[in-house]
Write a structure and sequence with these properties.
The structure is a single chain. The protein has about 230 residues and is of the alpha/beta class. The protein has one domain: Alpha-Beta Barrel (TIM Barrel), CATH 3.20.20.70. Helices cover about 30% and strands about 20% of the residues. It is built from eight helices and eight strands. It has an eight-stranded mixed sheet, covered by helices on one side. The longest helix has 12 residues.
Length: about 230
């Protein structure tokens, strides 16, 4: 279910100017999520839905300016028509496709993995806190299965958001230790404000420099470690 479309982004697809397609609906309920309008059913019902033909038309008009498409959410893998949609993007525009996923649906991920060029997958928390970080709706074992598939791709990244009370700098070596050495790991700063759970909307983020110090703890566990706002 496509909820919105962003024509141009310089940050969603590493190394490319991309258009972004937002799918609504998510199987998780991460309290710190900053896209509640793509998660909550009561909000989704009032949102505008775009049809695939309209999105393909918008993408086709941008070929030559954008050089990639990012499919994000919510959780795009919940859409039963995702594979067919990706196939249309590839066949009708020729644009490479990046997929964002929370990694909790390994069987569905396996069905589209050979159709995409880049995957960005979340590693929400250390195993013992995974249920807390996902609203009680995810298991780290499913995430491990997905991570193994993603790490076999030419282009991918894993990413973790540092959330006070849920994920600290000291958790990152444990998280990556379960996955193994990776090509790219992105550490994201928690952003207060619009969050799925009201308790997190005013939560103070970690102090300046904390994410950079966290990155130093895992430098040897990835070819590239990034810090993002």
């Amino acid at each position: 279910m496509i909820r919105s479309f962003l024509g141009t982004s310089l940050i969603e697809y590493p190394g490319r100017i991309s258009s972004v397609v937002f799918f609504g609906g998510c199987n998780l309920y991460c309290p710190f999520c900053h896209n509640p309008e793509l998660v909550r059913p009561d909000v989704l019902e009032d949102q505008y839905t775009l049809c695939e033909d309209e999105v393909l038309s918008l993408l086709s008009r941008r070929v030559g300016f954008v050089d990639g498409v990012c499919i994000t959410g919510g959780e795009p893998l919940l859409s039963p028509g995702l594979a067919a949609f990706i196939d249309r993007i590839r066949s009708e525009t020729g644009l490479p496709v990046k997929l964002d996923t929370n990694g909790t649906l390994p069987d569905r991920l396996a069905g589209v993995l050979d159709m995409v060029d880049y995957v960005a997958m979340d590693l929400k928390a250390p195993p013992a806190r995974y249920r807390d970080a996902t609203g009680g709706r995810a298991s780290f074992e499913d995430v491990l299965r997905s991570a193994g598939m993603v790490a076999s791709m030419p282009g991918y990244e894993f990413r973790t958001t540092l959330v006070p009370g849920l994920v600290s700098a000291g958790d990152l070596p444990e998280i990556l230790g379960r996955i193994g050495h990776v090509k790219r790991y992105a550490i994201q700063r928690f952003r207060p404000g619009k969050t799925l759970s009201p308790e997190y909307s005013g939560l103070a983020p970690y102090p300046a420099g904390y994410a950079e110090r966290a990155a130093e703890l895992v430098r040897g566990m990835a070819d590239e470690v990034l810090v993002r706002s």
